[in-house]
Amino acid sequence: MNPMKIGGSMTLKQESIYYMECIYCSGEMHETTTLYVQEIGSTIVIVKNVPCFKCKKCGEISYIASVAKRLEDITKRLEKAFTEIAVVNYTVA
Ligand SMILES: [Zn+2]
């Protein structure tokens, strides 16, 4: 007789880094991709296909730390490009 229950899918979901809760409305966030737009000086940086989490309830978008860091690196790099609009694809940037 074993009283211990094997953790169901709920346990796995909470431990996964792919599960996040919205900081604004506590809604469930799902994994998707988005268009990241950042204005720096006279340059507008547009990054396509950025992996992110979007709230199912309010639409809030958040990035995991490694993605946020990479967006920062891409933005910094393009700041020196001296173009008005820089468009890059995240998957190849
Ligand atoms: Zn939300």
The number of helical segments is: 2
Task: Kindly report how far apart the N and C termini lie.
Answer: 55 Å
Largest sheet: 5 strands, mixed
The total count of strands amounts to 5
Contiguous low-pLDDT stretches (5 residues minimum) are 6-16
The ordered H/E elements are HEEEEHE
Whole-number mean pLDDT:
83
Q: What class do helices, strands and sheet pairing give?
A: alpha+beta
Percent range for β-strand residues: 35-45%
Bound small molecules, by name, code or SMILES, are: zinc ion
What Rg, in angstroms, do the CA atoms define? 18 Å
Percent of residues in helical segments?
10-25%
Shape: elongated
Question: What this model shows, in words?
Answer:
The protein has a domain at 31-93. Helix content is 24%, strand content 38%. It contains 2 helices and 5 strands; from the N terminus they run αββββαβ. Strands 1, 2, 3, 4 and 5 form a 5-stranded mixed β-sheet that branches.
List the helices and strands and how they pair.
Blueprint: H1 9-15, E1 20-21, E2 28-40, E3 43-55, E4 61-62, H2 65-79, E5 85-89
Parallel strand pairs: 3-5
Antiparallel strand pairs: 1-2, 2-3, 3-4
The structure holds zinc ion.
Zinc ion binds at residues 22, 24-25, 27, 55, 57-58, 60.
